[in-house]
Amino acid sequence: MAKYRTVKPKQPAHLADRVRLMRKRLKSTGASALLVTNPCDIRYLTGFVGDDSWALIPMRGSKVYIFSDFRFEEQIQKESPHAVAVMRKRSLAEEVAALTRRISADKIAVQPGTMTLSTRKLLAKHLGARRILAIDDGLFAQRAVKDAGEVKAIRKALSIQQQAFRETCKFIKPGQSEYEVAAYLEYRMRSLGADGVSFPSIVAADANASLPHAVPGKKKIKAGGSVLIDWGAKWGGYCSDLTRVVGVGNMKPKIREIYQIVLDAQLAAIDAIGPGKLHSEIDAIARRVIEKAGYGDRFGHSLGHGIGLDIHELPVLASKADGVLEPGQVVTVEPGIYLPGIGGVRIEDDVLVTPKGHKVLSDLPKSLESAII
Hints:
Blueprint: E1 3-5, H1 13-26, E2 33-36, H2 39-46, E3 54-58, E4 65-68, H3 73-79, E5 84-87, H4 92-102, E6 108-110, H5 117-127, E7 132-134, H6 139-144, H7 148-171, H8 178-191, E8 196-197, E9 202-205, E10 226-231, E11 233-235, E12 238-239, E13 242-247, H9 253-272, H10 279-292, E14 304-306, E15 313-317, E16 330-333, E17 336-339, E18 343-346, E19 349-353, E20 358-360
Parallel strand pairs: 2-6, 4-5, 6-7
Antiparallel strand pairs: 1-5, 2-3, 3-4, 8-11, 9-10, 10-13, 11-12, 14-15, 16-19, 17-18, 19-20
């Protein structure tokens, strides 16, 4: 039998607002409760950051349940004291079934995007397949609009990653490998207080930079060569994401040429960002600059994406994207040109959509002159 630890509910206002909005949206689905299995959604709705745990949020009342085990009992008490902690003695599916019977929750909504077929089968075994509703809970879209606390966390992550980059630029020397630079950059982010990295850092020297998602390797950095660095820090669970290209003492003429084109494209797109603007149009503005310069076929990815608890969130700035920008969304703007055998340039910043326009949250210099280190 699971042990239920109930504390006096004292849900932080920002979490209560998130749960309230979710409940309002799911009211028409007929679900009695939402079973949350996506770790980022669990953190977003409850404040709990542990793993191997689920949350159950009834559509009525104020209680929030977290299913976990002894490893996280104390952590739940610290991070989510308002929640009812269910310390499982059986499988998560069995504990969910037992609790839903106890609180008379009939239809249980689940997150099909983060639930494996085997887990769904096990849950159906203990709950009954007819009680399970696979629905779009809308949390991914809800998380796209950040509150003040979330924006503050992203700003802090940016502050850490930018300082680490400045220190790394002083560290870079000809003869070092991509491995060494990536390791130093990530070490400095951790040393400066980051939870970790948003994603494995990309450090690509010279021709390797023609690969948009290059993996750091043994390639040596050369004097007069260029290095593309795409990196991010996490702070308070929230991600940041920037890309810069630097020239080591100099930069080859072709890289200089495409650098300025990419920068012009990025600045034009950022300048157009504001509430109500089409996602596809922001992408098109940058793409037209690159196409006009004759490199349209060398910019093959979308312009940007949302960031938050995940490194890739809504919205997506892409040619076929639907929807418009909303205040509170934080997006990357990262056009690029990639020339096989020569190299590539991508310049990326993080931009907050404000009620009247936008605010660029990152402030690293990016002029061609500043790119020479």
